[in-house]
């Protein structure tokens, strides 16, 4: 149970926090639509720090049990600081605050059209969303006023380092790449651990992913040309090893934050994988690929453009998928309910 001093303010029944729940390829997104205190800060990273330092109890309140679970994910819409942005978003999860979220871009693109945050234009409505990693352009297919499939163009994504030879705690050696797709990931073929992303247990893959991150953090010092706040290893992605056959779907599992498992193929992870594949000559520009999650949902991905990010050769990835609504709720803390402030059992 989190340490929540009595001075922290929680929503009551007369002033609840309103949310709309969606999912993209099975991965949840809880969008805060009302009742959250004002978020201060001159830019998106300052707003992220403000929520982390002053309002983190509300992240736990919304993400943890009894309202959420260990793999819940959320989006807090805030005022943008970039002129071209339609709105800005902070991402929340079981550990804290991520810098980019592709499945959220797909869901928020549809939400922005359906709830008239932007004017719907057929056949494609552009929604510009400011994220902690930068401005992300989403394109929403619109037919008869209804939003459908959504794609987004990533921030510059790049291969940070390739073929790191690292060791697990038991001494087993393995190889991984580290790539950035809005967040940094360690990319590793699951087969080298005698695991299959199609058949092995989630528990076994989570255990290995955690060890991969530990090993990488001990050896690799990350940096990002734009801001130090972006320079941390967000998670590990175990793949089926299929980086070259563009005619078949490649399956992966992304384990991020505090061993949180993404049910979708992971939009920022797909961007990172595309950046690594392109840098290693495994995919060409404009070649479409299918990326599949452990629950069988799929995102499309392709290298849309070639660019630079500081000293790194980089790409702009285009990732697409479909989001669905799953419900609407009003959350408050009942008087005297200490446990209801939020807790985790794992």
Written account of the structure:
There is one protein chain. The protein is an alpha+beta fold and 346 residues long. It folds into 2 domains: 154 residues, Diaminopimelate Epimerase, Chain A, domain 1, CATH 3.10.310; 163 residues, Roll (Diaminopimelate Epimerase, Chain A, domain 1). Helices cover 18% and strands 37% of the residues. The protein is built from 5 helices and 17 strands. It has a 17-stranded mixed sheet that branches. Strand 15 and strand 16 form a beta hairpin. The termini are close together. 45% of the residues are buried. The N terminus is likely disordered.
Short key terms for the protein model shown above:
Diaminopimelate Epimerase, Chain A, domain 1, 346 residues, 18% helix, 37% strand, alpha+beta, 2 domains, single chain, 5 helices
| Number of discrete helical segments | 5
Query: Helix/strand-derived class?
Result: alpha+beta
- The share of residues in helices is 10-25%
Task: Work out the count of structural domains.
Answer: 2
Main sheet makeup: 17 strands, mixed
Which outline best applies? globular
Query: What name goes with the CATH superfamily of the largest domain?
Result: Diaminopimelate Epimerase, Chain A, domain 1
Q: Could you please say which CATH topology of the largest domain applies here?
A: Diaminopimelate Epimerase, Chain A, domain 1
Radius of gyration using CA atoms only: 20 Å
CATH architecture name of the largest domain: Roll
